[in-house]
Amino acid sequence: MVAFALKQRRGSLRLDDLIQEGNLGLMRAAEKFDPHAGTRFLTYAAWWIRAYIGKYLKAARSTVRPRSGTVAQPDASLDSPIGDDEDVHWLDRIEDDGPGPEDTYLFAEGDREVRDALNEARKRIGELGWDIVHNRLQQQDSPSTLEEIGNRWGLSRERVRQVEVKTKQLLHRHLVTLETVATRDAA
């Protein structure tokens, strides 16, 4: 057991700790050994000793490999304070890649302007056009077909397609105007 512990010893791990883990493996082997199984106790115990020492080495191994000549530092919590200053923690130093408050506000403001523009355009496109926008253009999963909308309104598929084309053109003009105004205001 001592010879195996000496072979497995790495870095700053203490030899007596490895031997102690080997002793735990030896005790486990003594508990589990079946003399009628046909194996020698020494062969059976060696497996348990190696397993316990290997498990200890795996648990004691640091995830960060130190440079030669240095000792690995213990793992630190992100909630632990930096230095003597109790107010600043490691977690405070991690950079956030998400959008900042200004970007979030600008996106929300842009969404609001688009919603307002759509509500304004709704008055001009009428109920059929709005039904097409809502059930055909906005739905991502399963948009309504031209025929389904036509059946609801008592119109032909071709007439619904014509209204859809006109509605798209009107929305495009309206949103381009909105974008032009927003660009001019930003400058």
Sheet/helix structural class: mainly alpha
Total domain modules: 2
Beta strand count: 2
Low-pLDDT parts are: none
Distance between the amino and carboxyl termini: 78 Å
Please compute the radius of gyration using only Cα atoms: 36 Å
Highest CATH level, the class of the largest domain: Mainly Alpha
CATH 4th-level superfamily of the largest domain: Winged helix-like DNA-binding domain superfamily/Winged helix DNA-binding domain
Biggest sheet strand order reads 1-2
Mean pLDDT: 80
| Broad shape | elongated
What percentage of residues falls in helices of 4 or more residues?
A: 55-70%
Plain-language structure description:
A hairpin with a 2-residue loop joins β1 and β2 (85-89). The protein has 2 domains: 2-60, no CATH class; 101-186, Arc Repressor Mutant, subunit A. With 187 residues, the chain is mainly α. The chain is 64% helix and 4% strand. The chain contains 6 helices and 2 strands, in the order αααββααα. It has a two-stranded antiparallel ribbon with strand order 1-2. The mean pLDDT is 80. The chain starts with a helix and ends with a helix.
